[in-house]
Structure formats: C-alpha cells, structure tokens
C-alpha cells in the first residue's frame, strides 16, 4: 500500500474516531473538557493535506503538465460548473485526482433544467433533470480498468436545507466510507501513456462496458446519473495519472474543438462520427 493511500486511510480512521468519541461523550463523562475531542481533527487534516500536496519541481515550484487533448464525454448543449478554467484546484482540493476535474450539466434549452430553490421543493427526482440518462462517450481509445454501477441514484440536493445536509452530513459520511461512496457509480478508462479518465456519478445499471473491455473514442460507455456525493444529475469528468483516485494525481485536459469551458459557460458538443446510441 502506498504512503498516500495509508495517509488517506489514517485520515478516515481519525474522522471515524472523532465522531465515536463525540457520541460517547454525550452519554458518558470522559473526564476531560469537551473541546479536547476536536484534537483528533488536527492529525486527521495534517494527514489529508500531506497526502494531497501538489507535486513540486526540484526548484520548489508546483509541477506543471501539458493538457492532454481528448474528445468531449457528452454531446449536445451543456454548461460547466467547478471548472479548472476558472480556478485550480477546481473542486477546492487535490484529493482523489480532482485538481483539474470538471462538472457539466445539461442545458438543452433555457429553463429546462430545474434551478436552485431556497426552501421548496426540498428535493427533486433525478428524472426532473435533462442530464439524467444522457449518454456518456469514451473520450479516446482505451481499456476499461474500473466499472461500477450498483449504487442508487438519490434525490437532488437542490434546496438550501438539502445543500446543507449534503455539505455537512452526507459528505462527511461518504468521506469516512471511502472514495467509492464519493464518486458513486463510476468508470475509469486507461487511455495509455499513464493517462486515465474517470467518469463519476453514473446512473445505476447504465454501464455499457465491463472491466477489461477495449473501447473506441465516441463509443457510449455509460449514462449520466446522480449517485455518490452529488447535488443533482451531472457529469463529473477528470484525467489522472493512475486508475485509483485515492493515489492518483490530476492531469489537465482539453476537449477537442471545445477546449475547457469556464464556470457558467454554455457549450455545444457535437456527436462524433463513431457515436452510437
């Protein structure tokens, strides 16, 4: 087991110990001030910061890589969220190979995608979103090295109470449970030359490929869903330098003919010649 994986395991165990101690302290007098319970969080966050520190050159500068050009994983009209074109790391962390990750949501026409609401409705079914069930395409020729689609698609977290629940309760539980519960149903393609593509939050039962299978660019490999740590049906896509998000580092990408759309930017992705439904 690599040092990074051990560090992330230690981080999860310390988080679990913290919640265990807090719960025990509610029922039993542990004989020390309550705020001491939070001491467990210090080594936990030291571990996660150390494990996900960005690689540096011998001169001490952050390591830079040239973007890898691939096809877009979707077709049609979409808009970008949490884009590396707007900030890096795009999701606020280098963890799980997310440095250059991007989220995209379907925008087939104005007003079609339900917007955020302060209080009501608290949540919506995944079928209310145009991204749900949209085909996802292989961005290059490659080999399937990871594939999972048994986790359920949950309701959206598209209200203020739902978002707070996702951020402060559900996300923490998923963090303790491990990367599978964060990315939900997912697919990892080995594109060669040390580059791997991760598709996260896939629709349950939608995988069209299996581990070990060869795929061609433009081939339908799965469908967009709302599994894992997700607020609504969307596509989370990233390139990384290994098949395991726990130990992998993010790799910058560029979609052929589109580049990298910035936050809020609407883009049109054409269907490739090899696309099949």
Could you outline the blueprint of secondary structure elements for this entry?
Layout: H1 3-27, H2 41-51, E1 68-70, E2 76-81, E3 102-106, E4 135-137, E5 142-148, H3 160-177, H4 179-183, E6 186-192, E7 195-200, E8 214-215, E9 220-223, E10 235-240, E11 250-251, E12 253-255, E13 266-269
Parallel strand pairs: 1-12
Antiparallel strand pairs: 2-3, 2-13, 3-10, 4-9, 5-6, 5-8, 6-7, 7-10, 10-11
Helix pairs in contact: 1-2
Structure characterization notes:
- By secondary structure, this protein is an alpha+beta fold.
- It folds into two domains: about 5-50; about 70-270, Glucose Permease (Domain IIA), CATH 2.70.70.
- The chain is about 20% helix and about 20% strand.
- The chain has four helices and 13 strands.
- The chain has helices at about 5-25, 40-50, 160-175, 180-185; strands at about 70, 75-80, 100-105, 135, 140-150, 185-190, 195-200, 215, 220-225, 235-240, 250, 255, 265-270.
- Strands 2, 3, 5, 6, 7, 8, 10, 11 and 13 form a nine-stranded antiparallel beta sheet that branches. It has a two-stranded parallel sheet with strand order 1-12. Strands 4-9 form a two-stranded antiparallel sheet.
- Strand 6 (about 185-190) and strand 7 (about 195-200) form a beta hairpin.
- Helix 1 packs antiparallel against helix 2 (about 40-50).
- The longest helix is centred in the first third of the chain and has 25 residues, at about 5-25.
């Amino acid at each position: 087991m690599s040092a990074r994986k051990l560090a992330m395991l230690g981080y999860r165990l310390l988080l679990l110990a913290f919640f265990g101690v807090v719960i025990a302290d509610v029922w039993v007098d542990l004989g020390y001030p309550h705020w001491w319970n939070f001491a467990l969080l210090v080594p936990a966050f030291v571990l996660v910061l150390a494990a996900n520190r960005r690689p540096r050159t011998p001169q001490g500068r952050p390591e830079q890589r040239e973007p890898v050009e691939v096809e877009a994983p979707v077709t049609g009209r979409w808009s970008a969220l949490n884009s590396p074109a707007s900030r890096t790391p795009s999701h606020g962390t280098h963890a799980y190979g997310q440095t250059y990750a991007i989220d995209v949501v379907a925008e087939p026409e104005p007003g079609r995608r339900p917007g955020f609401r302060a209080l009501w409705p608290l949540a919506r079914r995944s079928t209310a979103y145009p991204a749900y069930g949209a085909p996802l395409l292989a961005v290059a020729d490659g080999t399937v090295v990871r594939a999972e689609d048994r986790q359920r698609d949950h309701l959206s977290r598209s209200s203020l109470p739902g978002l707070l629940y996702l951020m402060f309760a559900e996300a923490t539980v998923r963090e303790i449970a491990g990367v599978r519960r964060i990315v939900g149903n997912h697919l990892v393609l080995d594109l060669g030359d040390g580059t791997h593509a991760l598709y996260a939050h896939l629709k349950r039962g939608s995988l069209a490929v299996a581990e070990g299978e060869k795929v061609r660019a433009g081939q339908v490999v799965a469908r967009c869903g709302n599994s894992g740590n997700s607020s609504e049906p969307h596509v989370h896509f990233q390139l990384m330098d290994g098949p395991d998000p726990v130990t992998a580092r993010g790799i910058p990408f560029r979609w052929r003919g589109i580049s990298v759309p910035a936050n809020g930017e609407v883009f049109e992705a054409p269907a490739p010649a090899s696309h099949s439904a």
